[in-house]
């Protein structure tokens, strides 16, 4: 009995609408030192940040594009707007926002998310954070949750101490670009011993055509603290390409725990090129939950640097590549201290000619004894036109370690379908059950309430069209 796999996941993009462009300031297209100085002047930044931006721009000009990963040569850096300021300042009440921005986030579901289950919400629209809200009792505990621009003004010493300590502006071409033109992003500070039981969330939206969004997020979790940060992203569909090049730096102090969840559903005209790093000290726990469901090209490899004894890092990665999409995702675990442990679990689905790649690094430094590292990457290919690749890299410089790597590539088998259908389940439902079972290890780690985003962004729509 022969089966043809139906189109399991819909390629129809629900968030491709765009609002009329309204802005307070918009930079000229392209990038030079004057544009960078204008951005810094618009933001009224201290001199040290202006100098940092200009030096980063010089690094950006010198660095070449990566020769690995996806196709990057089509990016036209001269055809991008690097700074679009939609409002004069961030607000703390939803009613203060312009109507077109409120309508955008109403459609996405952010206000409802805030009302139902979140401790705090931030919303970035093009280049700026336009809205931030934090539950009052958390502010009384000394928790800071704001956009990074505001933190630079209100908490300058704290920002200067940690800013760019994990991601150097000369680390790679896109980190250099972000360092030169960064705008928006979240700043979170959790005092010693404080636990934030409800999630904090930020939502990033590109609205303008040919727009570059370069948010920069900095999270500091002091000793024995805990926070879960959620991030979602969407963009309109345009015939021209947009660029998203973010940087995330997270410092996890002794015995602290940080979970960072991302669900990115960019439209298929967006290059999504992100540098994310987490430094984890003794007995600390750092967790990345990374879901990539859109974009033209994603290149993203969240990293954990395990710097103190007993530190633990985990990455749960899920990516879907549909027609015209390439997801090149994975992660890095750097063991720099003894008795550290890490685990990478990566799941990918490719359909309708999409390409999904796992690219990862596990490195155990000399002296990092009694460490444990495990990598599991599984790929599900739904048709003959699609592709999956695995590029694992392991550098083990210590003998007293335990390192494991496991990889599988599979498709929906006729035997699986026959078994389920023989018990009265129709083919469409049977295929959906198999897909749900495949991604379940990732999805179960998301908070139930996060269905506000997840149910909208991962839709197993069975439409019986052959993939």
Automatic annotation (TrEMBL):
SUF system FeS cluster assembly SufBD N-terminal domain segment(s): 45-201
Pfam families referenced in this protein's UniProt entry, alphabetically: SUFBD_core, SufBD_N
Alphabetical list of SUPFAM superfamilies matching this protein: Stabilizer of iron transporter SufD
Residue span, SUF system FeS cluster assembly SufBD core domain: 204-438
A biological process from GO: iron-sulfur cluster assembly
UniProt superkingdom: Bacteria
Record family assignment: Belongs to the iron-sulfur cluster assembly SufBD family.
Name of the protein: Fe-S cluster assembly protein SufB
């Amino acid at each position: 009995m022969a089966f043809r796999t139906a189109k399991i996941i819909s390629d129809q993009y629900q968030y491709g609408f765009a609002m009329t462009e309204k802005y307070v300031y918009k930079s000229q297209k392209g990038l030079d030192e004057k544009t960078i100085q204008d951005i810094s002047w618009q933001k009224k930044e201290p001199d040290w940040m202006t100098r940092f931006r200009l030096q980063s721009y010089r690094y950006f000009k010198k660095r070449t594009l990566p020769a690995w990963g996806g196709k990057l040569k089509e990016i036209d850096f001269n055809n991008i707007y690097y700074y679009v300021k939609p409002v004069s300042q961030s607000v703390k009440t939803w009613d203060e926002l312009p109507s077109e921005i409120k309508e955008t986030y109403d459609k996405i579901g952010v206000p409802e998310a805030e009302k139902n289950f979140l401790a705090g919400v931030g919303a970035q629209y093009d280049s700026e954070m336009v809205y931030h809200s934090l539950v009052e009792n958390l502010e009384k505990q000394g928790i800071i949750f704001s956009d990074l621009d505001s933190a630079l003004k209100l908490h300058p010493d704290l920002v200067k101490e940690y800013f760019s300590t994990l991601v150097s502006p000369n680390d790679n071409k896109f980190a250099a670009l972000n360092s030169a033109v960064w705008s928006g992003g979240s700043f979170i500070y959790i005092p010693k011993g404080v636990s934030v039981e409800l999630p904090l969330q930020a939502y990033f939206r590109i609205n303008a055509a040919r727009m570059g969004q370069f948010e920069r997020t900095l999270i500091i979790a002091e000793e024995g603290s805990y926070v879960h940060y959620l991030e979602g992203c969407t963009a309109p569909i345009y015939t021209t390409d947009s660029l998203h090049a973010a940087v995330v730096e997270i410092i996890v102090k002794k015995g602290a725990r940080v979970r960072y969840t991302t669900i990115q559903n960019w439209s298929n005209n967006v290059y999504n090129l992100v540098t994310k790093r987490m430094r984890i000290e003794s007995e600390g726990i750092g967790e990345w939950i990374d879901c990539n469901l859109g974009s033209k090209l994603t290149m993203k490899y969240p990293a954990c640097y395990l710097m103190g004894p007993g530190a633990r890092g985990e990455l749960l990665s899920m990516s879907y590549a549909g027609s015209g999409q390439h997801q090149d995702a994975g992660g890095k675990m750097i063991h720099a201290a003894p008795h550290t442990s890490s685990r990478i679990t990566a799941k990918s689905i490719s359909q309708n000619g999409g390409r999904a790649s796992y690219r990862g690094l596990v490195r155990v430094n000399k002296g990092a004894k009694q460490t444990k590292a495990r990598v599991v990457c599984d790929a599900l290919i739904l048709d003959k036109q699609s592709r999956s690749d695995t590029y694992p890299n392991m550098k083990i410089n210590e003998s007293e370690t335990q390192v494991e790597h496991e990889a599988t590539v599979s498709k929906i088998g006729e035997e699986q379908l026959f078994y389920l259908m023989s018990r009265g389940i129709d083919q469409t439902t049977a295929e959906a059950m198999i897909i749900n079972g495949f991604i379940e290890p990732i999805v179960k780690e998301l908070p139930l309430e996060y269905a506000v985003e997840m149910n909208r962004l991962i839709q197993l729509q069975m439409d019986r069209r052959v993939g």
